[in-house]
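Rotation project, supervised by the postdoc (A.L.). Task for the rotation student: set up a whole-complex structure prediction and record inputs and outputs verbatim in this book. Inputs entered:
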Amino acid sequence: MQEQIKQEVQAIFRKVFLNPEIILLDKNTADDIDGWDSLTHLELITEMETHFNLHFTFDEVMSFENVGQMIYCISKKLVK
Amino acid sequence: MRLTKRFLFAILFLLISLKGLELLYGFFLLENRNIKSAYVSKEKINAEVLILGPCVPVWMISPTILDKHTGLKSFNLAQSHSDLADNFLHLHLYLKNNLPPKYLLLYISPESFDIRYNEFNTYRFASFLGDTVVNDIIKKQDPEYYKWSGFPFMAYAYYSNKINFNVLQGVKHFASGKNKAYFEDGFEPPFEIWKSDSQAFTESYPKNQNFIWSSNREGYLNKIIQICKTFNIKLILFESPIYSQSAKFQPNRSVFINRIKEISNYNKIEYLNFDTMLISNDKDNFKTTINLNKKASEEFTETFGKYLKKHAF
Amino acid sequence: MEFNTISYLILLFSILVLKVLLPEKFKIPLLIFGSFVFIASKNIESLIVLICLSTLNYFLAKNIAFSNSKKKVIPFYLGILFNLSALFLFKYFEQNTQGLSFSFTAINFESSSFIFLIGLSFYTLQNIAYLIEVYHNRTTNNISWINYIFYSSFFPKIVSGPIILPQEFLTQIHKERSLSSDIKTGAQRLIIGLFKKMVIADRLAPYVHYNFDLSDTNNGLTALVALYFFTFQLYFDFSGYTDMAIGSAKMLGIDIKENFQFPLRAASVTDFWRRWHISLTSWLTKYVFYPLSYHLRNLKITGTLLAITVTFIISGLWHGLGFNFLLYALCHALYLCIELITKKSRARFSNYFSSSLNKLIGIIITFNLISLSFIFFRAKSLDKSFSFLNSIFSFNNFLPSNWLNDFVSKLAIGGDLESQFNLYITLALTILFLIFEKKIVNAFLTERFKWRYAMIFILMIFLFGIFKSREQFIYIQF
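Outputs recorded:
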């Protein structure tokens, strides 16, 4: 389950940041990925929301410190 | 402990370097022949006539023209932007190294007594700190500078933009063994390109602006009068032509002229006022309301020389 | 008391000596006392207002933390409203007494009829951030009042930031630190900052003042170069201040986060805002841009563009309540929006060039774009800004007809050899510093104190620094 979400999230990252070579690690932060900044962060979030058909709260959006936390949050929501 | 030691060592190193720089700067500034104060305190000029004042005389009175009529050797000791304190110190430094002149021509106008025109240029005397007269005046005119000037090198660092270039020029003059100033007789001819600059006419005298009398400035005039008495120099005050239309923007000009007359009468010194001559009427003769251009300057100096020979000398 | 004065250095040094000599428990009272002396030396009103506002915010935050989620809404909005009105009143009076914007040079800086409240624009943002953090339960609330005052008034950062949160600041108080390493790295930072301010920014200041405020008729190139001078001046002034702030704080055992990250090397305006006045940008991102774009995210890109524009308008208002700052902000909003829209096409386009060439082109374009926006930041009035823009873009009068008279003399404020010499020295120092900036900063940021470099920089300050006609720090006005 986690692994599959990660693959899908990775695909979204590749699409948003126009870079087909992105390989996601759980510990990746905005500093590691070219183009991931405050302007693109919400674009990423919106893409996730449409793709997985879920809804992030504002506090959740603000609390993601790395990719791992984002995936964990998604998986938790999908289980529910 | 090691840190403290290194810190103290660094402070010591800094102080020594600054002191060294101070000595070097002082030395090379005095070698700079183009700084009037340094030039007259190194070179024996021994002129018979000295010309003193701010930018007006330095750009106007050519000793070559003047001497042709008076038959005496003159030197132009005037400096641009200088006030009477600045003038006094230049005279003091001159007299320390030269024989006193017979005559001193001092440019005086209402502007001379208003602190908004010209100023005391401390940096010109930085290398003369230590002379008691210089110290006293700097202490009075620029107390903040005086306070810091005791710290190694601060006497030069404080006005570095006015000093660094002169030091380099001093190095050049020292290395090349130059002993005459670029302007040997102190006169700096006005540029040819100076045509009438209409903006300067209107801006230098806002409408109906009154001159404000400064007792500080008057004090320095008295100091000049005193030093002339001590050295038995005949002092002559003069004002050169001003643009005739400008007088109407200066409501209390005549009050100031009268005060100057009173001072000269009281001290029994001559005051020659040339503020209206034929050249006063043509705007094209002027760079500003009081600065004549090249041609008019020459014309005035001819007249001035003839007059001095006939009536004053 | 400004950082580049001897009285500041004396204050810093005395506090440092006392801090070493006195027992640990006196550390905070001592630093608070030092801060109070620093602030009161400007004017006593600043100190009173600071203490009142901090105390008020502190107790509001306490109230928010101990209320249930329904009740805490009232103190929260009350606090935000209160801080915003304080900020607004301050800006309003500032504008009405100073005209549209301040004059940037000490010569014309008259604030006699206006009580200048030191640092208000900066600590208000900190207070607002603190209220928001407490409201959202994102921070632990065990700060004592005295520590909050300590944090608010801490003198190295009171004047112009960096803006930091109390938890980032206060968690450091009881950490074990190496005193000698703190003093060494702090002192290095202080020296670099002094150099940037006194040797570069203040040497450039008169040229900028002359060409922006006094000279009316300029050809395009002269105006453009004068504008570059202002970009350099502002950068060296503000980053010099920040270096001195971070350095002083470090010497006293507090780490403050960086505010600049080589902004003039930014390859896009987006990149520029990650490197310029970072603490303000992150404040705005966190408390304005994110909430806005979160709520507007269904509008896709339009939402982001809208959020960018609103964020910059707020930034502009924070700088001052004039059309000039508004235009400055809108300029940047426009740049960012264009960059966002053209992202894909630019990425495709850049494939044609090598990455270093891409970067170089990016840097040159960005530098010019931000410089152009600074016209509004610097010019005294809207009219002046447009006439300045007009001269730059007057293509038939772009090159000077006489290089000495219309270009060099205009920039150097005089055509004589001395003025030219001073201009060239200034230019050489600025450009050399910019070229070797990374090397210099890296050398000075390390733990090992470079005595040799420190001595060289101090001597350079004495040789080329401006001591007379001390310029005020530009960002002190905000």
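Student's summary: The first helix of chain C runs from residue 6 to 21.
Supervisor addendum: Chain C has 21 helices and no strands.
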